[in-house]
Amino acid sequence: MSGTLNQLQSSFKTSDTLSRHLEELCRPGALERHQDGEWQLLEYIEAEARDLNPESFGKLMDDVYNRIQSMLVRSNNAVENFRRLGGVLAIDELTDVKVVGDDASKTARLASLLSRTLEDTDDPVLMDVTAKTMGHLVRSGGAMTSELVEKEVRRAISWCELRPDPSIAAASASAAAQDSRRLAAVLLLKELAEQSPAVFNVHVKSFIDAIWIPLRDPRLPVREAAVSALKACLKLVEKRETRYRVQWYYKLFEQTMRGLNRDLRTGTGPSLDSIHGSLLALGELLQHTGEFLLARYKEVVEAVFKYKDSKEKHIRRAVVSLLPRVAGFSPERFSTEYLSRAIVHLLQVLKHSPDRGAAFAALADMAAALLRVGCASGFEGCVAPIAASIREAILVGRQTRQRHHCPEALTCVGMLAQALGPLWKPYAQQLIEPMVLTGLSEVLVESLMQMTASLPELLEDVQLQLLDLLSLVLSKRPFNPTTQVKFQALVAAISQGELQGNALIKLALQTLGTFDFGGIKLLEFMRDHILVYLEDADKEIRKGAVLAACRVLERHASASSASGGGGGGGGTAEFGRCVIGGWMLRGWMLREWMLREWVSFGA
Predict the structure, then answer these.
(1) DSSP secondary structure of 181-235
(2) Entry pTM
(3) pLDDT tens, 173-200?
């Protein structure tokens, strides 16, 4: 009797715990937590697999599948999408659970649930997560999912080929379902091409025939998802030897140019959607068809420049993002024939605030592409206006008190330092202070690292200005007492920055540990303003403080060793204390990590 009672109590406990985990997946923010690696349902199921006998575990999994199936049923209440998303996330977690002797049945059952969800949802987020989960299921299932992939590829291609029926009203439920399925189709095709290339390879011809309908779809998300699917297919073709490869490339190129040019028979021009989709496709052809477009290079470049002044913003931005790809495809020819034309256009775009970020990114990427073949010298005549545009973008952000500056402008500074070297030095030197006054960010630190690596003569200036910023974050005072002149500007930069609170402190500590501050004595700063964070409630901040302190000690010990300990017994003693202190901190950090991992495992 007592054994039966214990079993009942155990089943009630299991049911309650399972319900709690499934409910958690239906709450707002569950997707973000899932993407960050919080897979509590999986941990629970794996723990039950260790504790239960096969029969009891099989019953548990049947219960789980039934509950997930009920979560995925479509209804018309306000929380439907959260509940259905929770069901898909649960499937994603369960995909890698091994069910002894029943993996094929498990895979088929989960695939069926995902397939039905894709068929009847109109929520883009749910579509995307469901498609990714189907890809995960296919990858995990290996060879036994080949029939599933065959079925899903055929169905997705048929959805791509659905054309609007004139007899169906545009606002009707049937028309909406057709539109939703096209987006679902291209999202799924991308995942299947990436996760099951061997099976997908059989359907490349059908895919190439069908992809042009979603590439010219009136909805931007469909066109963008379609070009991602095209990219996955082209990468697959790149890796496989086939006699049809050139034939496929030619057909894709032909369709691309057809979407960019006027119809010779009717005289009608292409639609804006067709132009945009064709430009997106052209970008992937440039990157994933080898040298196929080399003989057609002039035609490609002229087609891109043809639409640089389009009234449609998506087309203009597509042209801007294409220029670095065009440059990277044939750098020598681009630098001699098209570089000045491209830079003039991008400088013009920099005057247009909404497209400014894309133009800065394009300039940086173009410089990097030309640097690889030693052709970046073509930038020489336009360095001054580029620097002026960067300065203006940074200052405008500060003057208007925008929380989000133009991060692409900061990135551009570092990448131009790499590409142009000494030619960029005087301009980079003038940009250091405006950059620092944008506030602490990962983009700023990365750009300053690139700048000092390429122009080491600027390192000292960058070190001092960056240390003032880090010191203000950690201790509310500048590192250099003479910085009072711009103290208020630095305080304002930090208060208006995108990062605040613990995230800002973590980045400051991380930067102290990774940036090159060699030559600057930071022992007192470490003692007064870094070690205090060893007692912080946030474990990531404690870890950052340990690593930053260790790095400061290592630099100091290395400098003392290089100078012979600074002369005399005092220097040797100080060097010894640094080494011992560094190892003590490292040991403390290791012990804390081991204890944390042991406690987590025990829990």
Answers:
(1) HHHHHHHHHHHHHHH-HHHHGGGHHHHHHHTHHHHT-SSHHHHHHHHHHHHHHHH
(2) 0.82
(3) 555 566 789 999 999 999 999 999 999 9
